[in-house]
Structure formats: structure tokens, C-alpha cells
């Protein structure tokens, strides 16, 4: 008699427990879902605020010239595509030329940055050598000095080398790890990788070069991806160095060409400049979308082998 | 090592794409080359490159490379090239910077070429004077302009303003501002607030019988000149007849943000060669008025070169450069292409040749130019080193007055003191 | 001697590109700028030695120098934390595995792509004008706003907001930092440990390293802010020097007023200021930043 009562009680208890657990799970799921919805709402709201200025830029590129400053409405009174069609050829050389130039300079620069900066970062982060702190401090110092005061001495130096009016002053420094930002970025990432890997490899008889190539690099895809993206965007948008070193308009890069549109004193062409600015963003956005996955992809365990 | 050889070091891909962009004239046929550096905009650049083509066709032995960038970056690059002794042979110069470069020895005098390779004998002598420093001609006037009060003809008509826009006084001007503001119920103010425009202030000083700087480069404008000027605009501000202080304190705004372009005032102060650019962004038809005169005062306005062409000290092939410069101001085909884009040409022959083909706005600027001839004064003396900084100080101190943070009289004293110390330090 | 080579050779080989670049391209100009800071140099003529005159003038008679420092320090104090907080907050939100994370990431990074372009400057002036969109929005809440960008007291804040709007770069680095830690590797590398402790070391500590990196770089960057301030004020630091960032002041001294010697002195003073901040950050980092398995 007793056993059946306790069996029943047990069954009821289990049933209760299961129902309570189920109810709790439902509530937790709902909270999670609400949380997620809230998160989405918040993110969408922030996105709208973030994107408003870009919408304005886009809209302005379709407006006739005298509407850009007069009215604040986003929507143009009439959609005009001639800012784009005319803007492409408004300058003495067509934008095709400028895009090709930018592509050359940017492509070479990104490669140069990735290679030379990762070399230097590996040395700073993983290798012991005399003078390491000293050189590290020197490297950081190059980050801190305002460019405008080294501009002229550097110009004179390149002038003596005969490199002015070529792409050499723009590209060669990138192959010589001139941008300390990327060295520092990669140093920070490398330092977070466990040293046991290095040690294990060394015990196996790997040289530092092999460690660099086979272990550190593959594990640093997020850092490399980040460096590639920043490098590309900054070189693409750089105009001060091209301004100083390029004389021939045929060799101008896109940001430099954009500055031909504006003349404080005379007739400016804002609509066309906006249109071309929008277009100059396109390759950058594409590159960004392609490369951002590299940052996020989890580290494949194949790196350990 | 020619430029082309250096470029070909950069990879076939770039060269292949760029090859299509190279000009059709085989550059290695020329054994002389000169560089011309100017600031521009798409319109001016197109015309200038066309002129370069014309010149090269006529002079196949000379290769001209044109270098250009917008005004904002022009001077940075110019300074860098000057420091490196790598200036272009021919550089475009502006009145504001001319003296800085001449007094530091960056430009060569042109006097020895006049009559031989540079034919300017029949040019208007007055406008040419602007390029003279210490008696030598350092810069050739390639276009003259003068101050102009650009006004909105539609608003003026609707408000019933019938003042004589060439001979009017500051009182007439103030009255017009008030009328316009009243008639439009404040939607359109009479004029931009010119408190921070040192160019207008310079006219004010001359109307009082003084120059801003004297021959030794000292500041001779008085505290009273400054105070009365700032007070004039303060009074108009109080009546609400000029543009809001908010918009005024944005310094050196682009044309498109001026009152007349945006449409919230009926008058803005500019230079006559900017009329075409202004009409392009203004919704209504614009007209040209003179800077108001002081009743019983001296003439304040003057005709000045809007821009010059100069020979830099780094010029190697002076003969080729002078040939180019001469063609620039004399050759019929060249001057036809250039038109009035840089200002009114000095040569009467060129002006006559251009007359039949002018657009409406261009014709207005030429008519305006003729009309003011009898009411302008001589060019002011060349500014000393540091003039650019004085200009900045004027705008900075004036901002406090515009925002109501300082009285005109006190600010005026502060400004004159600062101006004098700036000029002293710069010598 | 041989041991010296054997021990240091690999490192120097890796460092070679940077060494060549530094000694050939960077060192000369840096030393030249130091030399120029003791001269009067108008770029047209040869520099003229004046000893410490530039520095003396800077610290005793130059009012605008102090104004520039004031503006720049205020900006750094406001913009760097604001930017980092936004970047970290959004990065942590996005890190939790939302499906549409890629889209959001791109959206939040887009403003940074525009950099300091003229288009943005024009837009910013319009947005924060007396009749601009910001005031229009505030009016719907009943708040009457004045012109933000032309009021010397508030113009700097519009630039801080611009910095906040462009938080994409530090955000990306935070994301990379959060994702880049090879967690399975740590599991393998650690012998044993309690779960809670491991979570802390796995997530929070590496994060501190990324925070440190971002903090240092954003601070250096903020001190050197140039383009946005220059373009928005049309190169003048207006209104009333409220946007006279240090580098804007430096640029004008050099290229507008032909005082490259003085500008070089200004640059070196800035460099020392930044170096002090950076050094302090590095020294204190020993106490709060841990690199996993670091043994120096």
C-alpha cells in the first residue's frame, strides 16, 4: 500500500518538476527572445543615427548644385544623375585613370605593410635581442611625431633620391614597415598567443622563421585581416603624401583628384565631388565586407599541427 | 633621366593603363621642358590644359607639364616645393601671398624680359602695377578684378530698392538692408555681416584717407578706424538687418555657403571674377554693386590683379618659360580659350577680341568693371610680411564683437596692438 | 661575439626592413625637424640658428599655444573615453553571435570610412547649425537649441560627437581581440584550473590587453587630430580659436605664416607630451594588463 502511494507522489512530483522546468524554460526563452529583440531594436536605432550622414551624402550627390546648401531635406527635388556621369569626366583626366592609380598604390602598400610589419612585430613580440626595448621605443616615437614637420625634410630627401613625381615615396616606405601602428597592433596580438607553441616547436627543432611562418602567422588571421583593412582604407584615403610627391595629374590618386573639384575662390562643383566621393567608397566597402570574415572566423585547430 | 623613365619603373600594369592617358604628342621629341603650377577648379583646369596643348602644337620643341590642385592645398605644396628648391618654372600667384614670396626671394623679376620676350607695352599700366614690388615687376597680371557687392536682383526689385549701386554711400547701404529685411519679414536679411572681412575694412580705412600699411610696413590703420567699422556692423546687427551672427563666425566659407548663394541674405561681398561661380550656385539672378562709399571720403575700392603668373627662382629654361608667359597674355587662340575665367585681361586688344562672345554673367562683370573705373582709387602699397597673420587676427578678434562678447572700441584697441606685434615679429 | 650573432641574428633579420626604413627614411627627417626647432626657417631661405628662442617664446609669450593645448587636452579627455566606450559596448553586443552581425559590423564601420572628408565637414556644419537637424529634433522634445558649431563654447563638443560617430576602428579591433583568442588552444595549453577562473582568464584578461592597445593608440591619435578640425573650421580654428587644435595651430604656423622653425618646436613639445602619456600607460600596464603566458 505504501509503495503505490509514494510511487504516485513521486510521479506527481516528477510531473510537477517537469512542468515547472518547462515553464521556466519558456520564460527564459521568452526573455532571451525579448532580449534579442531589444538588442535588435537598439542596434537598428543606432544604425539609423550612424547612417543618416551617409544618406545625406548620397542624397546630395543626386541634387542639383544649388540645392545642396540651401535646403536640409534629404530628398532631392529632382533626381539628377549627371553629377555622376559628368563628374566622372569633369576633370582633365577621367576617373578611370585615378582609380587605376589608387588601386596600384593601395595594393602595393597593403602587401608591403602586411609583410614588413609582421616581420618587425614578430621580432618585437617573440624574439629576445639586445636593444629590443630601445628600438621599440623608437618605433613608438615615429607614431607620435606630427607628420607636418617631417614632411619637408622627407621631401628634400626624396628629391635628392630623384623619387619625386613617382609612386616610390608612397610605396617603398610601406615595404620598410614605416607605419608603426600596424607593428604595434600585431605585437599586441602576437603576445597573446601562448608561448608553449613556440617552445614546443623549438624543441622539435624549428627555426624562428619556421615558427613565424607555420605557427604565428596562421593564428594571426584576425590581426592580419584587421591590418589589411585599416591599411587599405588609410592608404586609399591618404592625400597628403600624394599631394606632395605627385606633380603629374595623370598619376593622381582618387582622394587627390577629388580635391581638384573645389576652389575656394572660384567655381566649385560640390555635387560632382560628392558623387565621386560616394563612388570612391565603393571599393573600400567591398574590400571591407570581404575581409571582415577573416577577423571573425574562429581559429582552426589545424594551426596546431 | 626623364620623368618617363622613372614612371616606367612602376610596373607594367600601371603603365599599360596609364599609357592610354598619355597625350598623343610624343614627349621625347621635345628637348626643353617647363612646368606650370596653378590652382584651379574643373573649369579652369580644362581651359588651362587646352592652352597647354595649343602652345605645344605651336612650339613642338617645348614640353609643358601642367600641375594643378585646389586652392586649399596649393600653398602647402608650394611651400614644400619652395623648401626643396623644386618650384615649377611658372607659378600662379595671389596678391595675398605674392609679397611673402617676393620678399623672401623665391621669385625672379621679369623686367629684363619686357620688350624682348614679354610684350606688354600696350597693356593697361594700372593693373600691371599690382605685380611690382620695390619697383621691379615680379608677377604678371593675368586677370584683374575688383571688390563687388553681389546682390540678389529679385529681392532688390521686390523691396523697391532704387539706389545708385555704383555711387551709393554706407547710409544708403544701411537703409537698403533695413528695407529688405522689413519687406521680407526677416526671411531675407539685407546683407552678410562683413565685420570679419578685412578686405572690406581695408576699403573703409582708405575712405578715411589712410592706408592699412604704410611704405615701411607698419600698421597705420587707427583704433578709431577699426572701432567705427565694427560699430557700424554692430548697429546693423542690432536692427537685425544683417545675417545672423551664427553664420558670420564661420570663417573663409566656400562660395556655396554665403548668404547670397544660400538665399538668406540679399548681398554678399566678393571679387568680380567670382561672379560666374556665384551665379552658378545662386537661385536668383545676381547683380553687381560697388562697395558703398563714405560720404565725402576718398575712394576705397581699387582694381587689383586677381591672380598673377610669376617666374620662380628654380626656373631652368627661362626663355621657354617667357615664351609661354607671353603667349598666355597675347596669343589670340590662347586668350580666347582662357576668356574671363581668371579675371579681366590687361590687354585692350584681348578684351576687344573677347567682347562678342561673352555670356550674360561675363558681360555683367565687364560692364561693372567699366562702370567703376572712375570711382576707384590707386592700388594699395604691397603688404609686409605677416599680413596673412594680421588677417587671421582681424577675424579672430572681430568674432568676439560679432558674438557680443566684446565692445567694438575695446576689441579695436586689442586688434591694433596685436597687428603691430605680429608685423614686428614677422620682420 | 659569435654568440651575440647567433642569438640576435634571427631577430635582426626580421627587423631588417624596419631598421632600413627607420635609418634611411625616418631618422633623418626626425632629426632634421629637431634641428629646425632651434632655427628660424621660412622654407624659402636657409634656416637661421636662434637657439632656444622658439621655445622661450612658446612658453612665455604665446597665448595661442596655451589655447591650443587647452583645446587639444579637452578633446582628448572627452573623445577618447567616449569613443572607446561606444566601441567596446557595441563590440560586446555584436560578439554574442547575432546572425546579422556582419551587416551591423559594416554599418557601424561605414562612418569611419568617410574619414575627415570635406563632405562630412559641410554636413557637420549644417547638422549643428542653429536651424540644423539636431536642433530640429530637439525642438520636438521642446528643447530650444542654439547654434552648436558656431558658438565657441560648444563647437568642440560637435567634434567630440564626430569622434564618437566614427568609432568603427576601435570597435573592429575590439571584435578582433574578442574573437581572436584561440580558446581551444588555451584549453590545451592549461593543465588544470577551475572553470570560473578559466572563464575570467580566457575572456577578461585578454580583453584588457586590447583595451590597453586601443587606449594608447586612440590617445596618440587624438592628440594628433588634424583633418576634421582643420576642414570644419576651414583651416582657421574658428570660431574664436575654439577649434584651434594643436596640430592645426602647428600647420598654420608652418605653412600659412612661414614659420617652419617654430612649428618644428611645437611638434617636439607635442611629441614629448604624447611620449609622457604613452610611457605612463606602458608602465602602469604592468599592473593591469596580462598577456597569457608571458614570461618577461
Percentage of residues in DSSP E strands of chain B: 5-15%
Largest interface summary:
A-C, 101 and 102 residues
Quickly count the domains of chain C.
Answer: 1
Q: How large is the count of helical segments of chain B?
A: 19
Q: Could you state the order of secondary-structure elements of chain C as H and E?
A: HEEHHHHHHHHHHHH
Task: Outline the secondary-structure elements.
The complex is a heterotrimer of chains A (about 300), B (about 425) and C (about 300).
Chain A (H helix, E strand, L loop, with lengths): L1 H59 L21 H9 L4 H32 L5 H13 L2 H15 L6 H8 L4 H12 L3 H9 L4 H12 L1 H17 L2 H6 L8 H5 L11 H27 L9
Helix pairs in contact in A: 2-13, 3-6, 3-7, 3-10, 7-10, 10-13
Chain B lengths: L2 H5 L4 H8 L12 E8 L2 H17 L3 E8 L1 H13 L6 E4 L1 H9 L3 E2 L16 H5 L2 E2 L2 E2 L1 E3 L2 E9 H7 L10 H14 L14 H10 L15 H16 L6 H4 L10 H4 L4 E5 L3 H7 L4 E4 L13 E3 L2 E5 L5 H13 L1 H7 L9 H7 L5 H13 L14 H16 L5 H19 L1
Parallel strand pairs in B: 1-2, 1-3
Antiparallel strand pairs in B: 3-12, 4-12, 5-6, 7-12, 8-9, 8-10, 8-11
Helix pairs in contact in B: 3-15, 10-19, 18-19
Chain C lengths: L1 H35 L2 E2 L7 E2 L3 H8 L2 H33 L5 H13 L4 H10 L5 H8 L14 H11 L2 H13 L2 H7 L5 H29 L3 H6 L13 H11 L3 H29 L8
Antiparallel strand pairs in C: 1-2
If you had to describe this structure to a student in words, what would you say it looks like?
The complex is a heterotrimer of chains A (305), B (427) and C (296). Chain A is mainly α and 305 residues long. Helix content of chain A is 73%, strand content 0%. The radius of gyration of chain A is 29 Å and the shape is flat. By secondary structure, chain B is α+β, with helices and mostly antiparallel strands. Chain B has two domains: 2-142 and 306-346, D-Maltodextrin-Binding Protein, domain 2, CATH 3.40.190.10; 146-303 and 376-426, Periplasmic binding protein-like II (D-Maltodextrin-Binding Protein, domain 2), CATH 3.40.190. In chain B, strands 1, 2, 3, 4, 7 and 12 form a six-stranded mixed beta sheet that branches. In chain B, strands 8, 9, 10 and 11 form a four-stranded antiparallel beta sheet that branches. The radius of gyration of chain B is 23 Å and the shape is globular. Chain C contains 13 helices and two strands; from the N terminus they run αββαααααααααααα. Chain C has helices at 2-36, 53-60, 63-95, 101-113, 118-127, 133-140, 155-165, 168-180, 183-189, 195-223, 227-232, 246-256, 260-288, and strands at 39-40, 48-49. In chain C, helix 1 packs across helix 13 (260-288), helix 3 runs parallel beside helix 7 and helix 8 runs antiparallel to helix 10. The chains are: A mainly alpha (305), B alpha+beta (427), C mainly alpha (296). Chains in contact: A-B, A-C, B-C. At the A-B interface, helix 3 and helix 5 of A face helix 1, helix 2, strand 1, helix 3 and strand 2 of B.
Amino acid at each position: 500500500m505504501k509503495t503505490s502511494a509514494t510511487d504516485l507522489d513521486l510521479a506527481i512530483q516528477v510531473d510537477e518538476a517537469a512542468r515547472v522546468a518547462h515553464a521556466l524554460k519558456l520564460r527564459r526563452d521568452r526573455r532571451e527572445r525579448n532580449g534579442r529583440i531589444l538588442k535588435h531594436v537598439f542596434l537598428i536605432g543606432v544604425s539609423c543615427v550612424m547612417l543618416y550622414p551617409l544618406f545625406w551624402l548620397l542624397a546630395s550627390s543626386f541634387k542639383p548644385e544649388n540645392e545642396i546648401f540651401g535646403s536640409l531635406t534629404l530628398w532631392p527635388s529632382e533626381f539628377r544623375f549627371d553629377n555622376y556621369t559628368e563628374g566622372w569626366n569633369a576633370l582633365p583626366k577621367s576617373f578611370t585613370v585615378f582609380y587605376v592609380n589608387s588601386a596600384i598604390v593601395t595594393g602595393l602598400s597593403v602587401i608591403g605593410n602586411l609583410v614588413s610589419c609582421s616581420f618587425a612585430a614578430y621580432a618585437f613580440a617573440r624574439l629576445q635581442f639586445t636593444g629590443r626595448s630601445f628600438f621599440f621605443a623608437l618605433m613608438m616615437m615615429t607614431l607620435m611625431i606630427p607628420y607636418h614637420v617631417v614632411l619637408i625634410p622627407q621631401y628634400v630627401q626624396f628629391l635628392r633620391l630623384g623619387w619625386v613625381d613617382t609612386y616610390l615615396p608612397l610605396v617603398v616606405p610601406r615595404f620598410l614597415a614605416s607605419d608603426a601602428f600596424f607593428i604595434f597592433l600585431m605585437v599586441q596580438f602576437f603576445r597573446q598567443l601562448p608561448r608553449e607553441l613556440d617552445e614546443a616547436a623549438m624543441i622539435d627543432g624549428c627555426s624562428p622563421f619556421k615558427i613565424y611562418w607555420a605557427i604565428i602567422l596562421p593564428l594571426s588571421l584576425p590581426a592580419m585581416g584587421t591590418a589589411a583593412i585599416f591599411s587599405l582604407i588609410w592608404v586609399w584615403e591618404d592625400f597628403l603624401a600624394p599631394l606632395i610627391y605627385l606633380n603629374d595629374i595623370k598619376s593622381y590618386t582618387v582622394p587627390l583628384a577629388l580635391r581638384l573639384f573645389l576652389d575656394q575662390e572660384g567655381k566649385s562643383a560640390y555635387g560632382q565631388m560628392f558623387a565621386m566621393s560616394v563612388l570612391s567608397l565603393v571599393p573600400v566597402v567591398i574590400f571591407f565586407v570581404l575581409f571582415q570574415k577573416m577577423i571573425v572566423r574562429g581559429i582552426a585547430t589545424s594551426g596546431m599541427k | 633621366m626623364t620623368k618617363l623613365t622613372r614612371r616606367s619603373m612602376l610596373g607594367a600594369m600601371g603603365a599599360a593603363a596609364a599609357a592610354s592617358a598619355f597625350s598623343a604628342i610624343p614627349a621625347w621629341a621635345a628637348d626643353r621642358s617647363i612646368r606650370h603650377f596653378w590652382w584651379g577648379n574643373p573649369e579652369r583646369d580644362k581651359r588651362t590644359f587646352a592652352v597647354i596643348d595649343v602652345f605645344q602644337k605651336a612650339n613642338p620643341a617645348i614640353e609643358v607639364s601642367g600641375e594643378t590642385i585646389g586652392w586649399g592645398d596649393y600653398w602647402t605644396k608650394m611651400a614644400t616645393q619652395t623648401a626643396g628648391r623644386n618650384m615649377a618654372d611658372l607659378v600662379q600667384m595671389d596678391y595675398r601671398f605674392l609679397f611673402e614670396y617676393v620678399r623672401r626671394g623665391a621669385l625672379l623679376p621679369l623686367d629684363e624680359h619686357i620688350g624682348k620676350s614679354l610684350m606688354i607695352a600696350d597693356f593697361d599700366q594700372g593693373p600691371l602695377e599690382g605685380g611690382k614690388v620695390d619697383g621691379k615687376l615680379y608677377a604678371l597680371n593675368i586677370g584683374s578684378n575688383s571688390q563687388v557687392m553681389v546682390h540678389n536682383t529679385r529681392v532688390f526689385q521686390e523691396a523697391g530698392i532704387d539706389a545708385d549701386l555704383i555711387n551709393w554711400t554706407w547710409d544708403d547701404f544701411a537703409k537698403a538692408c533695413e528695407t529688405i529685411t522689413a519687406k521680407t519679414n526677416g526671411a531675407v536679411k539685407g546683407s552678410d555681416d562683413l565685420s570679419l572681412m578685412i578686405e572690406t575694412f581695408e576699403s573703409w580705412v582708405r575712405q578715411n584717407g589712410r592706408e592699412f600699411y604704410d611704405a615701411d610696413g607698419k600698421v597705420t590703420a587707427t583704433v578709431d578706424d577699426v572701432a567705427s567699422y565694427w560699430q557700424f556692423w554692430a548697429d546693423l546687427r542690432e536692427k537685425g538687418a544683417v545675417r545672423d551672427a551664427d553664420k558670420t563666425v564661420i570663417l573663409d566659407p566656400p562660395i556655396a555657403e554665403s548668404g547670397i548663394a544660400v538665399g538668406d541674405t540679399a548681398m554678399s561681398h566678393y571679387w568680380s571674377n567670382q561672379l560666374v561661380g556665384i551665379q552658378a550656385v545662386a537661385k536668383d539672378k545676381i547683380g553687381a554693386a560697388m562697395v558703398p562709399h563714405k560720404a565725402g571720403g576718398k575712394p576705397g575700392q581699387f582694381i587689383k590683379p586677381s591672380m598673377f603668373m610669376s617666374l620662380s627662382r628654380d626656373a631652368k629654361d627661362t626663355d621657354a618659360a617667357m615664351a609661354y608667359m607671353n603667349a598666355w597674355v597675347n596669343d589670340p587662340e590662347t586668350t580666347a580659350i582662357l576668356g574671363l575665367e581668371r579675371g579681366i585681361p590687361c590687354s585692350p586688344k584681348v578684351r576687344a577680341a573677347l567682347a562678342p562672345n561673352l555670356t550674360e554673367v561675363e558681360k555683367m562683370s565687364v560692364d561693372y568693371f567699366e562702370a567703376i573705373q572712375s570711382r576707384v582709387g590707386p592700388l594699395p602699397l604691397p603688404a609686409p610680411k605677416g599680413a596673412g597673420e594680421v588677417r587671421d587676427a582681424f577675424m579672430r578678434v572681430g568674432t568676439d564683437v560679432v558674438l557680443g562678447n566684446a565692445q567694438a572700441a575695446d576689441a579695436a584697441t586689442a586688434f591694433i596692438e596685436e597687428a603691430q606685434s605680429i608685423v614686428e615679429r614677422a620682420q | 661575439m659569435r654568440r651575440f650573432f647567433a642569438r640576435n641574428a634571427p631577430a635582426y633579420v626580421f627587423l631588417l626592413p624596419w631598421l632600413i626604413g627607420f635609418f634611411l627614411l625616418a631618422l633623418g627627417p626626425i632629426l632634421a625637424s629637431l634641428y629646425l626647432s632651434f632655427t628660424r626657417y621660412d622654407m624659402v631661405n636657409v634656416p637661421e640658428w636662434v637657439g632656444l628662442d622658439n621655445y622661450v617664446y612658446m612658453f612665455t609669450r604665446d597665448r595661442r599655444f596655451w589655447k591650443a593645448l587647452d583645446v587639444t587636452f579637452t578633446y582628448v579627455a572627452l573623445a577618447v573615453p567616449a569613443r572607446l566606450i561606444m566601441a567596446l559596448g557595441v563590440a560586446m553586443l555584436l560578439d554574442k553571435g547575432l546572425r546579422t552581425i556582419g551587416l551591423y559590423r559594416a554599418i557601424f564601420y561605414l562612418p569611419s570610412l568617410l574619414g575627415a572628408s570635406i563632405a562630412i565637414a559641410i554636413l557637420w556644419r549644417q547638422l549643428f547649425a542653429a536651424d540644423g537637424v539636431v536642433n530640429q529634433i530637439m525642438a520636438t522634445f521642446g528643447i530650444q537649441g542654439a547654434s552648436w558649431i558656431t558658438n565657441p563654447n560648444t563647437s568642440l563638443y560637435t567634434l567630440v560627437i564626430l569622434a564618437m560617430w566614427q568609432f568603427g576602428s576601435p570597435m573592429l579591433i575590439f571584435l578582433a581581440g574578442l574573437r581572436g583568442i584561440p580558446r581551444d588552444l588555451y584549453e590545451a595549453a592549461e593543465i588544470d584550473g577551475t572553470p570560473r577562473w578559466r572563464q575570467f582568464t580566457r575572456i577578461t584578461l585578454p580583453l584588457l590587453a586590447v583595451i590597453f592597445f586601443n587606449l594608447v593608440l586612440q590617445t596618440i591619435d587624438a592628440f594628433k587630430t588634424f583633418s576634421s578640425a582643420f576642414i570644419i573650421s576651414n583651416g582657421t580654428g574658428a570660431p574664436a580659436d575654439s577649434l584651434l587644435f594643436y596640430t592645426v595651430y602647428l600647420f598654420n604656423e608652418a605653412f600659412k605664416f612661414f614659420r617652419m622653425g617654430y612649428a618644428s618646436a611645437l611638434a617636439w613639445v607635442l611629441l614629448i607630451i604624447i611620449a609622457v602619456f604613452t610611457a605612463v600607460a606602458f608602465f602602469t600596464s604592468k599592473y593591469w594588463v596580462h598577456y597569457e603566458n608571458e614570461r618577461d
